[in-house]
């Protein structure tokens, strides 16, 4: 086991406003990060940079690197993914030009930005930083388990890719709208790009996962809520260790279970049946009690996009009744009902 | 979450026989690794290398690098730890000489061997490898949860440093002595040095911990037992994620709970009470069922070194009765009773 780290600790962080770089991708499928950024941080996006007119259009003004800089942009975020997950050679000249213009380059792809030919030199010339959001920050400590001030809610799920990030973002927005001071805490690359800061928790060395979660969500005022983006699943045969470390390090007071009601098994693990929402609630409480004995479920977030309109209300009602907490589809209903449950349970 | 790796996978491995390097330490306290190596692999140790006559004597012949090489040694293992966990400058010339003589250098200290002045060059000259056992091998995959052939027993514990490595080593020896084909699987630096191969599980990136455990203990003949060295503890606020990943990736048929009966709280975490043996059994079964529904406890391993002689037998009997499985102090009793329980439960 690692010894306690004495180094200064930090999270990944980049400056805004930003410009979204879309390269030459032609379909929205490959631009999820860019579309999410524009959706969740519209006020901080000065525009998009595209390599050709056939590139997918994210619906914001086209800008050059110089124009983006003049409009106040401080970062260029690669908001699209190429096949294979690496930056295509054809994108590199535009990225170099942006770095030379002084824009920090932010990416969540495989391979390090500094390895792209000429980019490190261009960044040095322009005084720009190269920020790989898949690379954990240095100096992460071992988890202490010490009780921190402020409140925390974590999104968990019956599987990967079932709405944990979206639910956390929506819940943060709805809490703030209701006058509750809340901060989204990102743990995955897309979340980090949307938040502008965070820790890629699945890339952290195992010994430091609880500590990374503690650093991500530090002491806060008593009525402040951190809304922490969950990862993986407690019944996931590949990733449950990430989920467990994030849960115990986050020491959440509350959690929301995200679930796709049509899924029958763990995605890409066909031999593993999907756990039920009740199983996840029970297991989350059991393990989460280690660092927060008061942990409780405050909501279920359901993906109802493929449920016939006539069955939706009945399905939500069934899950709400079975779990004893509000059940919403955050995309359709928002998370107001979960905000109300949080206020009721915690007098926030 | 990481995508499945396609790279070839491996574990850390080094060649034997070996010579133990003790540097200039003066007390056995700092030579635990070297002493353990000589204890567990006496037939493969050609001797010790000491920097001066005041260095602690591990009780094997003193040899020079050249003499060790002539005696067939293929590796030099740094078997002592200096204060601060780094290799002192005064040790480097002797290490360079050994590398130049063609001995692979094996170390488990902080900092990479290649960073020591002149050592990489010396190794290149002698055709020697530099092996940092704290650095995980490349190409580790994501855990699949696929059922593997052969049998597995994992040591778990109520805390860190309560006998998991020693118990696994003794159990491997006792199984083999009883005619059961068994292999020790190392997950920590000292264990890796003793076994000559393994994966430093706590240093693996979180996403790959279950996969690393799968690689460490591959398919085997039906009646073969892998005895896997446990890490951390399921109730440990800093390290439980390592323990969980190792448990689920190992998919053990059986486990042994290691426990220090005099400890009252998690070592170095005074705010966290030590769990009971029964708590650990229950939690291990609950989580381990995900990849092995038949998982069961087959023994309790107790550290009775500080228990008065007259109370020892009663204490062991009490733990055996409470847990329903044999309870031994492996240092005094060996693990024959646990071997018998394994044979009875699994017809091995």
Q: What key attributes describe this structure?
A:
homodimer, 348 residues, alpha/beta, Rossmann fold, 2 domains, six-stranded parallel β-sheet, five-stranded parallel β-sheet, 12 helices, globular, disordered N terminus
Question: Care to describe what's here?
Answer:
The structure is a homodimer of 348-residue chains. Chain A has 348 residues and is an alpha/beta fold. Chain A has 12 helices and 15 strands. Chain A has helices spanning 32-40, 65-70, 92-100, 119-126, 164-177, 189-195, 209-216, 240-250, 277-288, 309-323, 330-333, 336-346; strands at residues 12-13, 18-23, 45-50, 75-78, 104-107, 130-132, 151-157, 182-185, 197-198, 225-228, 254-259, 265-266, 269-273, 296-302, 327-328. The first copy, chain A, has a 6-stranded parallel β-sheet with strand order 8-10-7-11-14-15, sandwiched between helices. Chain A has a 5-stranded parallel β-sheet with strand order 3-2-4-5-6, with helices on both faces. In chain A, strand 12 and strand 13 form a beta hairpin. In chain A, helix 3 (92-100) packs parallel to helix 4 (119-126) and helix 7 (209-216) packs across helix 8 (240-250). Chain A is globular and about 55 Å long. Chain A starts with 11 loop residues before the first strand and ends with a helix. The interface between A and B is large, with 39 and 39 residues.
Brief sketch in words of this structure:
The first copy, chain A, is of the alpha/beta class.
Secondary structure layout plus pairing:
Two copies of one chain form a homodimer.
Chain A: E1 12-13, E2 18-23, H1 32-40, E3 45-50, H2 65-70, E4 75-78, H3 92-100, E5 104-107, H4 119-126, E6 130-132, E7 151-157, H5 164-177, E8 182-185, H6 189-195, E9 197-198, H7 209-216, E10 225-228, H8 240-250, E11 254-259, E12 265-266, E13 269-273, H9 277-288, E14 296-302, H10 309-323, E15 327-328, H11 330-333, H12 336-346
Parallel strand pairs in A: 2-3, 2-4, 4-5, 5-6, 7-10, 7-11, 8-10, 11-14, 14-15
Antiparallel strand pairs in A: 1-9, 12-13
Helix pairs in contact in A: 3-4, 7-8
């Amino acid at each position: 086991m690692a010894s306690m780290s004495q180094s200064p600790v930090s999270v990944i962080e980049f400056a805004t406003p930003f410009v979204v770089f879309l390269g030459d991708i032609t379909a929205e499928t490959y631009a999820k990060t860019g579309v999410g950024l524009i959706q969740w941080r519209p006020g901080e996006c000065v525009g998009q940079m595209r390599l050709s007119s056939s590139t997918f259009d994210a619906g914001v003004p086209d800008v050059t690197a110089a124009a983006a800089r003049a409009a106040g942009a401080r970062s260029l975020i690669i908001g699209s993914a190429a096949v294979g997950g690496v930056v295509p050679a054809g994108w590199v000249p535009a990225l170099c030009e942006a770095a030379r213009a002084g824009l920090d380059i932010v990416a969540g792809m495989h391979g390090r930005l500094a390895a792209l030919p000429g980019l490190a030199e261009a960044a040095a010339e322009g005084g720009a930083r190269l920020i790989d959001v898949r690379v954990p920050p240095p100096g992460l400590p071992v988890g202490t388990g010490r009780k921190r001030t402020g409140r925390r809610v974590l999104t968990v799920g019956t599987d990967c890719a079932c709405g944990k990030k979206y639910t956390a973002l929506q819940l943060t927005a709805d809490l703030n709208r209701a006058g509750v001071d809340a901060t989204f805490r990102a743990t995955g690359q897309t979340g980090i790009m949307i938040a502008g800061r965070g820790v890629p928790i699945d890339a952290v060395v195992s010994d430091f996962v609880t500590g990374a979660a503690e650093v991500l969500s530090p002491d806060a005022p008593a009525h402040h809520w951190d809304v922490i983006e969950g990862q993986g699943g407690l019944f996931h045969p590949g990733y449950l260790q990430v989920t467990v470390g994030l849960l115990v390090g986050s020491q959440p007071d509350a959690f929301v279970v995200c679930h796709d009601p049509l899924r029958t098994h763990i995605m890409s693990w066909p031999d593993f049946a999907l756990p039920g929402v009740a199983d996840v609630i029970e297991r989350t409480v059991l393990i989460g009690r280690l660092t927060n004995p008061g942990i409780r479920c405050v909501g279920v977030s359901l993906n109802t996009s493929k449920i016939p309109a006539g069955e939706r209300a009945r399905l939500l009602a069934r899950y709400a009744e079975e779990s004893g907490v509000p059940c919403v589809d955050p995309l359709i209903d928002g998370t107001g009902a979960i905000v109300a449950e949080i206020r009721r349970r915690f007098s926030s």
